[in-house]
Design brief:
It is a single chain. Helix content is 36%, strand content 16%. With 234 residues, it is an alpha/beta fold. β1, α1 and β2 form a beta-alpha-beta unit. It starts with a strand and ends in a 9-residue tail after the last strand. The chain binds NADP nicotinamide-adenine-dinucleotide phosphate. NADP nicotinamide-adenine-dinucleotide phosphate binds next to α1.
Length: 234
Amino acid sequence: MTSKHYLIIGGSHGIGLELVRRLRADGAAVTVVSRTRGDLGTVSEVSHIEADVTAATLRREQLPEVVDGLAYCPGSIQLAPLRSITPELLLEDYRLNVVAAVQCVQAALPALKAAQQAAIVLFSTVAVSQGLAMHTSVAAAKGAVEGLTRSLAAELAPAIRVNCVAPALTDTPLAERFLQTEEKRKAMAKRYPLKRVGQPIDVANVAALLLGDQSDWITGQVIAVDGGMSRVRV
Ligand SMILES: NC(=O)c1ccc[n+]([C@@H]2O[C@H](COP(=O)([O-])OP(=O)(O)OC[C@H]3O[C@@H](n4cnc5c(N)ncnc54)[C@H](OP(=O)(O)O)[C@@H]3O)[C@@H](O)[C@H]2O)c1
C-alpha cells in the first residue's frame, strides 16, 4: 500500500484509465482530469476534475496540495499524406500534445514540489524513432514531447524526475479505427516482432514504474513499449 497521490491527465479511457487502475490497486489516491468521466465508473474512489486542457488552463487551487506523480495522457493519431497537412492540423496536434502538457505541468508544479520526490510521465509514439508514412503531424508533435521530456528532466532535477513512454499501436479508443475488424487486427499484429498490438496494461505498467520509487534513478528517458517495432527486425 502507498500513501501517494497521483494526478492523471486523461485517465478516463485507454492507457490513462489502465494506469489509474494500477495506481488504485496499489492503494494510491488518484485525481483524474479529462473532458468526460468516460469509464472511470469502473474504478473506485477516484476524484475527477472535468476540463478540456486545450481550452482552459488548470488552476493550482483545483489540484491536490501534494502530487507525487503526474502523467499526461491526451494524444492524437491524425494520419494524413503530406499534401493534406495544413498549419491548422500541425498546430492542433502541437497544442494537445505539447502546449497543454506544459501548461498542466506548470499548474501542478507547486504540488509536485511539495512532494518529497515526484515524477512526471509524458507520452510519445514509436513514430518518432521509426519513420512511418502519413505520421508527419503526430511525429512532429511527439518529437517535441521527447525534447520536452529531456529539457524538463534537466530543469526539475533532482526533486522531480521526468520520463516519457513511447508506445506503438495499443488497443484503446484512440486506436479503435485501426483495429475495428479481425482482419485489421491480424494485419497490424503481423507488423510487430512480438506479433501482437499493445494492450493498455502493457503501457500502463511501464508508466506506473516510471511514476513510482522503483525508478528513482531514472530521468530524461524515452522508454519504447512497442512490441519491438522501433529496434528489432525478425
Ligand atoms: N493508442 C495508441 O495506439 C497509441 C500509440 C502511440 C502513442 N500513444 C499515446 O499514448 C497516450 C495515451 O493514448 P490512449 O490511446 O490511451 O488515448 P485515448 O484512448 O484517446 O485516451 C486519452 C485520454 O485523454 C483524455 N483527453 C483527450 N483529450 C483531452 C483534452 N483536450 N482535455 C482533457 N482530457 C483529454 C481522454 O478523455 P476524455 O475524452 O474524457 O477527455 C482520455 O482519458 C497518448 O498521448 C497517445 O498519443 C497511443
